[in-house]
Structure formats: structure tokens, C-alpha cells
Specification:
Strand order of the largest sheet: 6-7-9-8
Pfam family, one: VanY
Oligomer: single chain
CATH class: Alpha Beta
InterPro entries: DD-CPase-like, VanY-like_core_dom, VanY/YodJ_core_dom, Zn_M74/Hedgehog-like
Strand content: 5-15%
Mean pLDDT: 75
Largest sheet: 4 strands, antiparallel
Order of helices and strands: HHHHEEEEEHEHHEHEHEHHH
Number of domains: 1
Protein name: D-alanyl-D-alanine carboxypeptidase
Number of strands: 9
Shape: globular
Number of helices: 12
Keywords: Carboxypeptidase, Hydrolase, Protease, Signal
Structural class: alpha+beta
GO biological process, one term: proteolysis
């Protein structure tokens, strides 16, 4: 029967359609608002997709920042040191550092770090209010100025000249000055270093009493008096005021006024060659018990070629050299005075 066949086909198709719909419905998860949230966490926001061109631009910007990094670091380092000096001058006007009230014949507590023997050869010992010995020959290239030995009040070397070397200070700044013989020696040293591929720059030569007072006051404000005396001299006791000392640095500005300068090629070159130009590393490593100051591989002190070579070869400090050669130095001083007053 044609009509029955059509009905059968319709029923079969209805059954197939129902089965298909039921199967699809089984694949759809129940309606739960929490379903699928964990998948959402894995879908990045469109704005977070990496932009290849933007990445290239950022990399180019980073490369540009890296160009000239050494010069920038050097400028930043030297500017930082100069800012410290300026801050020191400002702080000095506001902070008066009082000398320890120790009385005649006694010394500040920091003096205990140096040799108890008087290593200077003065014939008559005068003392300042803090009990420090006032040196009687401040123009001697062998003058000892430290925690226990002070320069005469108002001392200023008469033969200061501007050293012809690269400095991080502008022309006219007193820190470009040295006594004439020391200036000529540092010029020769800088030239020899340059010939060996070492680029040095001057940081601080001569400092007046007033500038040193400001610097020391700043260090006290920053670190406290006890720690300040390890890194900075009280006014009147600084080698810089003698015009025979100079702080130097690598031209790059790396390890500026830091102990790590001693490990740099510039620091190693100075350690090996400074004595041939009359300079010593005044505050050597492991010498604080004798000198009273922490290791400063950048601090050069002029004493003349002969003495500098002897100190270098013996591994001495200036203190131990003067102590060991006290009698000879006194004799030399006596001979000099005899020649002046026959």
C-alpha cells in the first residue's frame, strides 16, 4: 500500500531525527554559570598579545640606551662625587664638629688605631687643643699628617700650581692644585699610564682647611663620627692640605673612590708603577691599624722617588718607614738646618 509505505518512511525519519537530537543534547553541558571559567583564564586579552613590531621598537630603544653606557656611567660617577663635595660644603655651614675634649697630652680615640710611637722627626713637639702633635716642617716631602699629627694653623703651601692632567673639576677649582714638584710628577705618571693604555683622571688634589672641614662635617652627618674618621680626615690633619696628595680614578668612572678600584687595571697599574714617579699608595690594604684609614687604592701621596721605591719594595706604610728611619731623618734635618744657619 503506497500510503502505508509513505507513513512508514515518515516514522523512520522521525525516529532518526529524534535520535540525532537526543545525541546532540547529551553533548551539551548542563547550564552551570561556573562551567568554562577555567578555560577563560587561559584566553589572553587581545591587548596582551605580543606585537612583533612593538617588540622590535622596544629592543631598539634598549640598544640605544646601552650605547655610550660607559661614558654615561663615568659622568654620573664624577657628578656624584662632585655633588658629595657640594653637599659637604653646605653641610659644613650647618654642622660644627667638635674636637674630642681629651686634654693636653692625650689623643682622640681614633688615634689608637695608629702607632703609639711618634714617627715624625720634629725637634720640638707642640700640640694642638686635641693633643695632636703639630708638625714643625709642613713643607717637607716626608711630612706625616694623620690622626695624631696636625698641620700648623693657617697652613697653605706657597708653591701650589694646577697640574696639567685631566680632571673632573672645572678650571679654577682648588682641587686641581698640587705643590709644584708633585704636580710635575703626577703629569709624568699620567702620561706613562696613558702610554700603557690606562686612562686616569684626577679627582681631588689640594684641599684647604675650610673645604676639608665641610667634607668631614658631611661625613659625620652621614656616617657618624667614629665611622667618618676611617674615611675622612679632620680639618688640619688631611694630607690633601699638604698639596702632596691626590685622589685619582679610572676615566670610565667605575669603582670611583671605592676599594674595588684596586682590582681594576688602572688600580693594578698604579700599585706597580706609582713609586717610579715618587708616589705611594698611602693607605694600603690591611694597613688601617697603622694608618688609621681604610684601604684607599686611589689615594696617592708624593714622597719622592727614592723613598717611594723603598716603601714599595718593603711593603711598608709611611708610618713604618718613618719609624724605622727616624734617626736618619733627624740627622738629615739637622744637616739641613746647619746649612741654613752656618
Amino acid at each position: 500500500m503506497p500510503g502505508g509505505n509513505r507513513m512508514n518512511r515518515s516514522l523512520i525519519m522521525l525516529v532518526l531525527f529524534t535520535s540525532l537530537f537526543t545525541g546532540l543534547a547529551a553533548c551539551v553541558p548542563p547550564s552551570n554559570p561556573l562551567n568554562g571559567l577555567d578555560q577563560l583564564w587561559d584566553v589572553p586579552h587581545p591587548s596582551a598579545q605580543p606585537d612583533e613590531e612593538a617588540g622590535k621598537t622596544q629592543n631598539r630603544a634598549s640598544d640605544d640606551l646601552l650605547e655610550g653606557t660607559e661614558d654615561d656611567r663615568a659622568k654620573d660617577s664624577f657628578a656624584k662625587e662632585d655633588d658629595l663635595q657640594k653637599n659637604a660644603a653646605q653641610a659644613g655651614d650647618k654642622n660644627e664638629v667638635r674636637e674630642p675634649s681629651t686634654g693636653k697630652g692625650s689623643h682622640p680615640s681614633s688615634d689608637e688605631k695608629t702607632s703609639s710611637d711618634d714617627t715624625s722627626p720634629p725637634s720640638e713637639k707642640k700640640q694642638d687643643e686635641a693633643g695632636r702633635i703639630i708638625v714643625d716642617d709642613p713643607l717637607s716631602y716626608m711630612v706625616l699628617v694623620d690622626h695624631r699629627h696636625a698641620l700648623p694653623e693657617g697652613f697653605e703651601p706657597p708653591d701650589l700650581v694646577e697640574a696639567d692632567i685631566p680632571f673632573d673639576k672645572p678650571s679654577g677649582d682648588e682641587r686641581r692644585l698640587l705643590r709644584e714638584q708633585a704636580a710635575r710628577a703626577i703629569e709624568a705618571l699620567f702620561q706613562a699610564a696613558q702610554d700603557d693604555g690606562v686612562e686616569l683622571i684626577g679627582i681631588s688634589g689640594y684641599r684647604s682647611y675650610d673645604l676639608q672641614a665641610s667634607i668631614f662635617a658631611y661625613q659625620v652627618q652621614k656616617k657618624g663620627e667614629k665611622e667618618a674618621t676611617r674615611v675622612s680626615a679632620r680639618p688640619g690633619t688631611s694630607e690633601h692640605q699638604t698639596g702632596l696628595a691626590i685622589d685619582v680614578a679610572d676615566k670610565s668612572g667605575k669603582c670611583l673612590l671605592e676599594p674595588c678600584f684596586g682590582e681594576m687595571p688602572a688600580g693594578q697599574w698604579l700599585k706597580a708603577h706609582a713609586h717610579t714617579y715618587g708616589f705611594i699608595i698611602r693607605y694600603p690594604e690591611d694597613g688601617e691599624a697603622l694608618t688609621g684609614y681604610m684601604y684607599e687604592p686611589w689615594h696617592l701621596r708624593y714622597v719622592g722617588k727614592e723613598v717611594a721605591t723603598t716603601i714599595y719594595e718593603r711593603g711598608d706604610t709611611l708610618e713604618t718607614y718613618l719609624k724605622d728611619n727616624r734617626r736618619e731623618l733627624i740627622d738629615r734635618q739637622g744637616d739641613a738646618q746647619s746649612r741654613q744657619n752656618p
